[in-house]
Amino acid sequence: MEATKKLANFISETKIDMIPKEALEMAKKAILDCTGTILAGSVTETGAIIKNYIRSDETSRTATVLGSNLRSSAENAALANGVMGHALDYDDIHVHMLGHPTAVVLPAIYSLGQVAHSSGKEILASYVIGLEIATKIGKAGITQHYRNGWHATGTLGILGACAACSKLLKLDEEKTQVALGIAASMSSGIRANFGTMTKPFHVGNASKNGLMAAMMARKNFTANRDILESEFGFFNTFFGRNQYDISQTITYLGEPYEILSPGLIFKPYPCCGETHQGIDAALSLRNRYRIDFNNIKSIKCELSEMVANMLHYHNPKTGLEGKFCQEYCFALALMHGRVSIGHFSDERVSDSNIKKLIEKTTVEFKDFAKEVGEHTFPAEVTIVMNSGEKYHCRIDNSKGSPDNPMSLIELEKKYRECASYVLSDTKIGQSMELIESLESCSSLDILMNLLS
Predict the structure, then answer these.
(1) Cα 160–65–420 angle (5° rounding)?
(2) 317 and 439 belong to one structural domain
(3) Domain limits for position 34
(4) How far, in Å, CA of 320 to CA of 271, rounded?
(5) Closest CA relative to residue 213, chosen from 232, 186, 238, 234
């Protein structure tokens, strides 16, 4: 079938003028959003640890670690920026990947693009192509891959980062095949680490290794050039024999681009995306009925069975665990009318009022797939008050999804909030302008200087 060859041909031969303008405009929104999450993630404990880790490597100072005065090798910068980009779980999602494509692809091309003196146009094209590869591979059978315990942001994201970096390095078809072969053997990430710092490490590691694979291929390292379709290759190993449809990956590359259809899901809340429908339901009920959380008798929240193993914390002990607890996120929304970065500290999850609401909440999982398909994860919520009154709400598509999108104004507000942790108002405004006109930038140097 020559699947790897077809992907490599698409990567190497696609020019920016072949990519729809709408895809490039959406790419700039995604880059703005993820750049903000990297900046905010740089001040977390997770961000501090990864920066301290790479600070010991003084051999190269060619690429910028965002939100700091630290520079390191392209690989180390990709690692750090990838970890920080996912540290808050505030970065975008794609349903065909069941993961976070931009937080893997963008750090790799930011770092390599800085070293290679790439133009803004080259960054945009490589980003769209990298996202296309990661998500089209996922489209072949992501559900079973995810159920097997893999964290697709790491396992598929590395191939997207590799594709994007291969494009930036202008590798030909054969070397791009080799790069994908190298990357496939570095693919990793398991879901048992959700709710710990290792989940964002999956992202940074994939970003770093995707970049490294492309650079090794350029230097004539060798690998299996049919890595996707081989008997013991990527699909059979990671998806399982007869558990995927490879035609879904290779038949419609760029037709349409995945960034446009089904499109990215941007996050208005800094927690697992599968809590967002429940959060939206809580906010809707709170605003509609002016609910006093002190007078709640019980809360029932029905979620898709697909998310049961994602939201496996029901009595969180840490802020990171709280990001994967529907009961906690629902309680935050009911109590505060918002869910924000500061809510996910270890101290907050110990709040007595929050704990009382968690104790009153029952989460059940049911099969919504036959009704809405396997890529939609509804939340159906019923609140019973002490008075006996019942309030009900169902949310199928959370705020930020293509069917319920965040506006550009909302995305810009989110960026300003995230960037304010490390940048002045002047730098925030200037960096926004540069990203929103990225196709006009001759190099990344000015933008990287603003973001450091």
Answers:
(1) 105
(2) no
(3) 3-268+409-451
(4) 9
(5) 186
Cis upstream peptide for 378 (omega within 30°): no
- Are residues 68 and 172 both part of a single domain? yes
Give the predicted TM-score (pTM) of the model.
0.96
CA-derived radius of gyration, the chain:
21
Same domain for 87 and 181, yes or no, is yes
d(CA 120, CA 340): 32
Q: How many domains does the chain have?
A: 2
Please report the pLDDT score of residue 31 as a whole number.
98
Report how far residue 179's alpha carbon sits from residue 159's, in angstroms, rounded to the nearest whole number: 9
In a domain, 403, yes or no: no
* Residue whose structure tokens are 């005065």: 69
CATH (domain of 136): 1.10.4100.10
**Residue carrying structure tokens 């999108």:** 405
277 within domain boundaries: yes
Residue type, 439: E
- Note the pLDDT tens digit of each residue in 14-42: 999 999 999 999 999 999 999 999 999 99
Confidence band, pLDDT 50/70/90 cuts, at residue 58: low
Helical spans, DSSP H, in 196-351: 198-218, 234, 247-250, 276-289, 319-322, 326-336
